[in-house]
Amino acid sequence: MGEWMQASLSEYIQFKNGKKRPSGIGVLPVYGGNGILDYTDSANNENSIIIGRVGAYCGSVYYERKSHWVSDNAISAVNKNNSDIGFDYYVLKNLNLNHRHIGTSQPLLTQEILNSIEIKWPPLHVQIEIRRILAALDDKIETNMKINHHLAA
User: What region holds the Type I restriction modification DNA specificity domain (predicted)?
Assistant: First the structure.
């Protein structure tokens, strides 16, 4: 099955701060610290994980496969060659990043904090299998929620 290696997030994931939101209006989502803020005609990312960087939603984690814009209230995360981005998403989603911020009145999550977090990383083929299983469970949960919503209606 392969050996799991103790390593920092920086060895598997590249983090970048978002940029000021463009003024154009379009169909591409603009992500901030709390998910989609707006839509624009420009993109600064594709297939990336978005992490809330500042404020009450600091540490929130989203995954967007299609082209999108990451605003300056968020950090984008893309996988490096030795990791699976879907697995990276589940890792980041389960690290309780909202408890790793600095500051009290205005919480802030930095690239330095993210880069320094260490976990045990499985080999790539194991990452892919874990992501496949977790994604299937997420799909099942979403289907059940839709069924429950229709039953309530």
Answer: 3-149
